[in-house]
């Protein structure tokens, strides 16, 4: 039986159909918001996957180009690998939902959302997020939901619930908030220096809307939800914990993990693991889960010491940041480079500048073959954490970290008019022990300044962690978490910004939501920490952008011409512009509005090309002086090319002050001559004089 449910959401109708399609999935919701249509399904394997110690959840966000009435770009007219937007959307769906599955659940679960139609008034990413929650909640898969998600935009200081695609693209805020029960469970934001108080207002506004959606979803689950199936628990038995503590008492485990050196800690745990493996050599059942048991024992030890004694593994105070250092220009010949180190986390960022024609082409449902002028990419090689693994290219984590750092710096980049370059920043992880994405933000900011990119303000980022107790008011927020505190803690709350406001937020948690006091404490500590990083570290390495780009970077000069004269510059089949490029060795980009960007390494050649363009588009007023080359000789005079594709005639009577019988008496093909414009003759051709130059 088909069931249809609807609610009014931000002035538009959200419709959920159950039982119409996807009946063989564990759960399926056919979602419509306006005309945006997304099919959302959730499936689970019947049995747990053997030999794993994690929950195998896969989330897929599929973009179909028929949803916007277009063919996929390129030669293969079939959707290929997921776009970067699809990957980032999958991550946003995954992050709030993963903590709501049982921690000891090992069955494979796949959540798929497929965009089938797009209404520009209703963003498909939001519909997919909501549909994912519904599909799992009504299924028989164990899930402590439903959760709900709302997006907030801001235009002219006004907060907009679930903005249209245009409002999302042009506004000052891109905020996504997920909630479960009465708590916030996920925050993702990009912002144009939004003050902390305004950001909190937006988060709470989204949370209030989420509570309404959750009540709507609960009604659906109550009516059509399936009973949750039984599953095989993979929890570590208490008997094993008791046996481990006999061999390794709590005080010994505490001593093993509480050190400021990651390698020492890992060596200590390896020694404990060897002893326990030898102790339980005859118990195959315990040996199979010994690694997970040691991990849990280590986790409980760290959490207890932080929560009860405010003692961190490396001995720092709760708000203390690890030792900082920064430097620029460590890589020779590149356009800009910087390295940022925070404890055992170290990022080297390299910036490359190029003409705007090198901007990345982006193909997606919200932008078909659009240009992306600024690109930030993040790499995380295995050696950065002391491991051996063959690189297979960037995974979802790397793409997500790169996008976060990119989002952090976008608001401070100069406009195309101010700085007509395409910009690529690449963050290389040299060493990792907590929050490399925030180190990437700091390194990228300094690298951009070192490259001479006139960014408006300095941007820094920091991550705060969390350890919670048995009650909502029993918690500790940690500034600058290291890897151990991230693994064993409840939250990774990342905030980037300038001195004037927030530019990006990404919050991941492992518990069932955060209270308002936790959110506000984390935002406040992140603000204090990023100010400290800018003042005490980054500004001492480089305080402001350099006035000029590197001598190794291409030089770009931009001029504005009448759009109606673009054809004159390009010439028939590109003949004129190609001739300019061939003569000067520069690269020329022309936009539809008449902006001409000339790029090259030799400033003299750039100036020569710019001069040629200016000559081509000029109105050739009487009295203008040009230098050109004789390209044709006739009985009545000579033709002089004074710019690619532009010629004027010098009548034989205007060549010399002395009377001459033949043009060849004075001129030969290829001669360079200086001429003065006399205007246009009766045939509309430009007339030149050589003999009158001196008089002008």
UniProtKB/TrEMBL annotation:
Parts forming coiled coils: none
Going by the record, the broad EC class of this enzyme is transferase
Q: Where in the cell is it found?
A: Cytoplasm
Q: Which UniProt keywords apply?
A: Cytoplasm, Magnesium, Metal-binding, Nucleotidyltransferase, RNA-binding, Transferase
Could you tell me which residue ranges the S1 motif domain spans?
623-691
User: Gene3D superfamilies from the xrefs?
Assistant: GHMP Kinase, N-terminal domain (3.30.230.70), K Homology domain, type 1 (3.30.1370.10), Nucleic acid-binding proteins (2.40.50.140)
Cofactor entry: Mg(2+)
Under catalytic activity, the entry for this protein gives: RNA(n+1) + phosphate = RNA(n) + a ribonucleoside 5'-diphosphate
Could you state one GO cellular component term attached to this entry? cytosol
Q: What EC number(s) has UniProt assigned to this enzyme?
A: 2.7.7.8
Enumerate the residues binding Mg(2+). 486, 492
Q: Name one GO biological process term.
A: mRNA catabolic process
Instruction: Tell me the InterPro entries matching this sequence.
Output: ExoRNase_PH_dom1, ExoRNase_PH_dom2, ExoRNase_PH_dom2_sf, KH_dom, KH_dom_type_1, KH_dom_type_1_sf, NA-bd_OB-fold, PNPase
**Can you tell which superkingdom this protein's organism belongs to?**
Bacteria
Molecular function via GO: 3'-5'-RNA exonuclease activity; magnesium ion binding; polyribonucleotide nucleotidyltransferase activity; RNA binding
Which family does the UniProt entry place this protein in? Answer: Belongs to the polyribonucleotide nucleotidyltransferase family.
Function summary: Involved in mRNA degradation. Catalyzes the phosphorolysis of single-stranded polyribonucleotides processively in the 3'- to 5'-direction.
Would you tell me the protein name for this molecule?
Polyribonucleotide nucleotidyltransferase
Q: What is the lineage of its organism?
A: Bacteria, Bacillati, Bacillota, Clostridia, Lachnospirales
């Amino acid at each position: 039986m088909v069931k249809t449910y609807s609610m009014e959401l931000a002035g538009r109708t959200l419709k959920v159909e159950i039982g119409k399609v996807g009946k063989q999935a564990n759960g399926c919701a056919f979602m419509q918001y306006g005309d945006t249509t997304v099919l959302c399904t959730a499936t689970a394997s019947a049995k747990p996957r053997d030999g794993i110690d994690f929950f195998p959840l896969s989330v897929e966000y599929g973009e179909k180009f028929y949803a916007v009435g277009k063919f996929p770009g390129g030669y293969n007219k079939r959707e290929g690998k997921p776009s970067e937007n699809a990957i980032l959307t999958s991550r946003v769906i995954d992050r709030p939902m993963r903590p709501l599955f049982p921690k000891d659940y090992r069955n494979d679960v796949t959540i798929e959302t497929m965009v089938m139609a797009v209404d520009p008034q209703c963003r498909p990413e939001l519909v997919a997020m909501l549909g994912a929650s519904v599909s799992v909640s009504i299924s028989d898969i164990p899930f402590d939901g439903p959760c709900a998600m709302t997006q907030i935009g801001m235009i002219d200081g006004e907060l907009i619930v679930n903005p249209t695609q245009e409002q999302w693209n042009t506004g000052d805020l891109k905020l996504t908030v997920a909630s479960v029960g009465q708590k916030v469970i996920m925050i993702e934001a990009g912002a144009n220096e939004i003050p902390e108080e305004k950001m909190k207002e937006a988060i709470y506004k989204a949370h209030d809307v989420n509570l309404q959606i959750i009540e709507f979803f609960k009604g659906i689950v109550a009516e059509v939800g399936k009973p949750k199936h039984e599953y095989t628990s993979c929890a570590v038995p208490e008997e094993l914990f008791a046996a481990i503590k006999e061999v390794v008492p709590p005080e010994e485990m505490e001593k093993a993990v509480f050190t400021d050196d990651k390698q020492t800690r890992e060596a200590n745990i390896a020694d404990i693991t060897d002893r326990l493996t030898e102790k339980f050599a005859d118990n195959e059942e315990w040996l199979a889960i010994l690694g997970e048991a040691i991990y849990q024992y280590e986790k409980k030890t760290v959490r207890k010491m932080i929560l009860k004694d405010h003692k961190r593994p490396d001995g720092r105070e709760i708000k203390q940041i690890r030792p900082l250092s920064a430097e620029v220009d460590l890589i020779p010949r590149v356009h800009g480079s910087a390295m940022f180190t925070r404890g055992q986390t170290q990022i080297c960022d390299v910036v490359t500048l190029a003409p705007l024609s090198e901007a990345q082409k982006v193909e997606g449902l919200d932008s078909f073959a659009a240009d992306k002028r600024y690109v930030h990419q993040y790499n995380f090689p295995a050696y950065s954490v002391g491991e051996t693994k063959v690189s297979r290219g960037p995974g979802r984590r790397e793409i997500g970290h790169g996008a976060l750092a990119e989002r952090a710096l976008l608001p401070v980049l100069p406009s195309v008019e101010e700085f007509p370059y395409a910009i690529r920043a690449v963050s290389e992880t040299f060493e990792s022990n907590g929050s490399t994405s925030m180190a990437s933000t700091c390194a990228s900011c300094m690298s951009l300044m070192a490259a001479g990119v006139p960014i408006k303000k300095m941007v820094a980022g920091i991550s705060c962690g969390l350890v919670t107790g048995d009650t909502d008011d029993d918690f500790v927020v940690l500034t600058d978490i290291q890897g151990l505190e991230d693994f064993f803690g409840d939250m990774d709350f990342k905030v980037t910004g300038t001195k004037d406001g927030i530019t990006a937020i990404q919050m991941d948690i492992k518990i069932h939501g955060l209270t308002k006091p936790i959110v506000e404490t984390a935002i406040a500590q992140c603000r204090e920490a990023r100010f400290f990083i800018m003042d005490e570290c980054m500004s001492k390495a480089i305080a402001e952008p350099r006035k000029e780009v590197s001598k190794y970077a291409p030089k770009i000069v931009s001029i504005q011409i009448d759009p109606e004269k673009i054809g004159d510059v390009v010439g028939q089949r590109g003949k004129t512009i190609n001739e300019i490029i061939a003569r000067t060795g520069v690269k020329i980009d022309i936009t539809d509005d008449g902006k001409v960007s000339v790029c090259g390494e030799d400033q003299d050649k750039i100036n020569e090309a710019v001069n040629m363009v200016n000559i081509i588009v000029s109105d050739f007023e009487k009295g203008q002086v040009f230098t050109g080359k004789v390209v044709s000789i006739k009985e009545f005079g000579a033709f002089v090319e004074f710019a690619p594709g532009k010629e004027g005639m010098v009548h034989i009577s205007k060549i010399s002050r002395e009377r001459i019988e033949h043009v060849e008496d004075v001129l030969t093909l290829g001669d360079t001559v200086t001429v003065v414009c006399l205007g246009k003759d009766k045939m509309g051709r430009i007339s030149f004089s050589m003999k009158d130059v001196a008089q002008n």
